[in-house]
Amino acid sequence: MSLPDIVRDFDRVSPELVQQAGAYQAAILADVNGRRGALHGRIAALRPSMKVAGTAFTVEVRPGDNLMIHAAMSLAKPGDVLVIDGKGDQTAALMGTIMMTACRKLGIAGVVVDAAVRDSLEIEEMGFPVFSVGTNPNGPTKQVGGRIGHPVSVGGVTVHPGDLVVGDADGVVVIERARVAALIPLAEKKVKDEAARIAAIGQGDTAAKWLDAALRTAGVLKEGERL
């Protein structure tokens, strides 16, 4: 039995886990997730100061058409992040000030869209986190159907409704709902390990102790040879 085009209910990462995960950089979470889940770099924060953490509310639209985004806004729950498969289209903006203002009022945590937006200065003034492939002053159409609450492909990553979404100045990472809890302690450990390594570098220990072995494995150094 096939799902309807609009799926209204699905399991989400708990607010407690979202809060815990949101304390970490997207880069830390991507690393402990096996260097998987990071969206293509074309999807970036409108401004480097923008950060978001929430649960994925997935939307698929046709290029240049935002009909289903309006429908998704009326169905999303507070704390959701609209994750929009806009097919990477940059010929028209799918969202602007009016829609972003409504999203913020609805409690939507942010927007990640594989397409363009507009009114970037006003969105910056709002302080609402938006991650997109850039901007375009042209407006969208509102004529073509799509899907809500289905898996989508955004920035080369499959995103399921309810997954964890974390974005910052480096980009956006999406982690499968079932994996989030197990990754939190790994993220905590990685932050501590990196802090210790940075402190050691500050004391003059700049050598990468793994480098010679990696160069030998790559065939750059002979066995027993060192840099």
UniProtKB/TrEMBL annotation:
Xref: CDD domains: RraA_family
Single GO molecular function: metal ion binding
Record's keyword terms, sorted: Magnesium, Metal-binding
Binding site for substrate: G96, T97, I98, M99, R118
Gene3D superfamilies, A to Z: Ribonuclease E inhibitor RraA/RraA-like
Top-rank lineage group of the source organism: Bacteria
Entry binding sites for Mg(2+): D119
Cofactor(s), names only, from the UniProt record: Mg(2+); a divalent metal cation
A Pfam family it matches: RraA-like
PANTHER family: 4-HYDROXY-4-METHYL-2-OXOGLUTARATE ALDOLASE 3-RELATED
Name under which the protein is recorded: Putative 4-hydroxy-4-methyl-2-oxoglutarate aldolase
Organism: Hydrogenophaga crocea
Organism lineage: Bacteria, Pseudomonadati, Pseudomonadota, Betaproteobacteria, Burkholderiales
